[in-house]
Fold YCII-related domain-containing protein.
Amino acid sequence: MHWIIYAVDKPSMLPTRTANVDKHREYLAAHPIRTLISGPLTDDAGTNMTGSFFLVEADSRAEVEAFNRNDPFWSLGIWESVDIHAFYKRVDDRAGAPQ
């Protein structure tokens, strides 16, 4: 099943985020939950990171919640809010993407 994680940063956390991005990336790479798409949310100019977006594959909400709680960005208190939603893909126009 696909899940979306939409996490908004606390306004003052950009320096902490930047200093710990390698730990965050290492965690994502090592975790058994498959991350299909992820990256930072940004302001409209694309210059300041304001949060995180993930599209992941997992069997249950509980797995996604645990995945999120163990992320270094969570434990460092970077995110002000985190929303998790089940997602049903209807269209994917990326080249080679399964429909």
Observations:
- The CA atoms of residues 40 and 46 lie 10 Å apart.
- The chain has a mean pLDDT of 93.
- The first strand starts at residue 2 and ends at 9.
- The chain has one domain: 2-87.
